């Protein structure tokens, strides 16, 4: 099995970036922290756009990614975050070719 990466960009409604973060902290952060399938997770504020969040996730496999996103909590997260984002996220899955560390 090869590792699976996800690059995600969230566009918050104007002035709602911290609200997106609070939703993420409630639903995603504790589950990602406890998930052995997550090898890395970076939640970042875009310094060039006050309403954009950039996320990088590295999973141990595509199956680990699919299992995480299939959690029974995920629809509740999507509903909550949908209230504070301007559009659906831009999601780019990527197969890992090389990594340092």
From TrEMBL:
| Matches recorded under Pfam families | ABM
Q: What is this protein's name? A: Quinol monooxygenase YgiN
- By its UniProt entry, which Gene3D superfamilies does this protein fall under? 3.30.70.100
Please give the Gene Ontology molecular function terms for this protein.
monooxygenase activity
SUPFAM superfamilies in the record, alphabetically? Dimeric alpha+beta barrel (SSF54909)
Q: Locate the ABM domain: which residues?
A: 8-72
Q: What keywords does the record list, in alphabetical order?
A: Monooxygenase, Oxidoreductase
Q: Which first-to-last residue range defines the signal peptide?
A: none
